């Protein structure tokens, strides 16, 4: 996988950071879609990357909501 967010990296982040990253990714996706609509988009692959980043963030948030993985569990696995 190219540079970007991985699920393991996201699992160690606190909830407020995830919310911030999600907001930034959604803004970037909006801008990329806007560029595509106006014919200014240079990298169509970036659209796919950003969508996947958003999906990863939602997945990590849902895991925490269901109690599958917590921030403490993820930190212990990294050590």
TrEMBL record:
Keyword list, A-Z: Ribonucleoprotein, Ribosomal protein
Any Pfam family hit: Ribosomal_L29
A single BP term in Gene Ontology: translation
Chain's gene name: rpmC
Signal peptide (UniProt feature, chain positions): none
Record family assignment: Belongs to the universal ribosomal protein uL29 family.
Protein name: Large ribosomal subunit protein uL29
CC per GO annotation: cytosolic large ribosomal subunit
Xref: InterPro entries: Ribosomal_protein_uL29, Ribosomal_uL29, Ribosomal_uL29_CS, Ribosomal_uL29_sf
PROSITE patterns given in the database record: RIBOSOMAL_L29
Organism phylogeny: Bacteria, Bacillati, Actinomycetota, Actinomycetes, Streptosporangiales
An MF annotation (GO) of this entry: structural constituent of ribosome
